[in-house]
Write a structure and sequence with these properties.
With 208 residues, the protein is α/β, with parallel strands linked by helices. The protein has helices spanning 23-30, 44-54, 96-106, 128-134, 150-155; strands at residues 13-17, 35-40, 61-65, 78-82, 107-114, 117-122, 125-127, 169-171, 177-183. It contains 5 helices and 9 strands.
Amino acid sequence: MLNQPTHVLDFKIVLDVGCGTGILCMFAAQAGAKRVFGIDCSSIIDQAKVIVQKNGFASQIELIKGKVEEVELPVQKVDIICSEWMGYFLLYESMLDTVLFARDKWLKTGGLLLPDKVTMYICGLEDAAVRRDRIDFWDDVYGFDMTPLKDIALHEPVVDVVAKEVSSVSLLLPASFSFFLFQLCLFPIDSHSLSTRPSLQTLFLSLI
């Protein structure tokens, strides 16, 4: 939406939470926003200020260095909050709490969150090569039985990309499954637990 012809941002005040290089701020300004504020606590914001100036948006965009929970804006409320807050598997190392804090503090009644809805998907698969390298590896390490470490390895999350052409990957479920929908305008900031009870049927059991 931010880089497409639209009137949603015309003359609006926009806040970018975790603005990074300022790319979303510039998209918002380019799409017609009257004023854009970007907040980030990392040193990348120093380069972002130079980028904003080089691209001619210094009069529209103001970047603020600091934690969202600690800084103040020169306005009481904003019309739109945008953020690329999503982490691995949506929530792992995400900025959801920070976005919700900004929503409750600065977003005006009837304002927009971009994105405003996100969906979590799950898909079961087995990668024989990964299992061999990460799990079965502990059965015999240079002749030593180190199987007590297998349980730790099984519970340690792995962030990786699964390529379609990898022959060692086998699907345990027929398709990806949508199991949780977040509506950010309604999600309570003090909600620290999520629960859902999906019913799934595997394709085969030999690798489970």
